[in-house]
Amino acid sequence: MMGLDWSVLDWGEIGLASWDTLRMMGWSLLFTVVFGLPLGVLLFLTSRRQLLQNNWLNRALSFIANVLRSLPFLILLVVMIPLTAWLVGTSLGVEGAIPPLVVGATPFFARLVENALREVDRGVIEAVQSLGATRWQIVWKVLLPEARPGLLAALTVTAITLVSYTAMSGVIGGGGLGDLAIRYGYQRFQTEVMIVTVVILIVLVQLLQMLGDWLVARVSKK
Known about the structure:
Blueprint: H1 11-45, H2 55-70, H3 73-79, H4 81-88, H5 93-118, H6 122-130, H7 135-146, H8 148-168, H9 176-186, H10 191-220
Helix pairs in contact: 1-5, 1-8, 1-9, 2-5, 4-5, 5-8, 6-7, 8-10, 9-10
């Protein structure tokens, strides 16, 4: 491109930033699933006409999830700085970005899980109940297996959302490609760095979507 000096690019630093982004996304996705899957299952089970119907608990969980989802992620990053520093000892870098990433993505993933479980045919659940299955067996042997395509789609959407969140975490020094784009692309006016980081993020999102679509298609065939 005219007017661009690609020799200013430090590919070693770009590679490190890409690895940091993958680390943030990977660890955040792991903890999001650990916390979000049970929350989503509980939101479904405690809703009206379900196995553990409990209006008060469902409303409380829904309120918490909705409050966290309503906060813009950049505001959540700033608000959580003291808590993040207390939890992991720092609010900067990869470690400092993971807690707000998890808090921001968990209610989002939980709602997707809840919606995926609602797609399961109620007749299947009632048939298993009539055979004397326990609630635990219904959840693990019927609900989750039957909802696998929807759950994998939810996981894919959440992973892609976390990629954008990791980029935003660079505003407060969260590390990764977002931090690189802000420090060099924005503050030092190195357009070349900005272009490369955007391209890498686009490629990463495309790969995640392709992998997710492949997994959903594979599971749906079974």
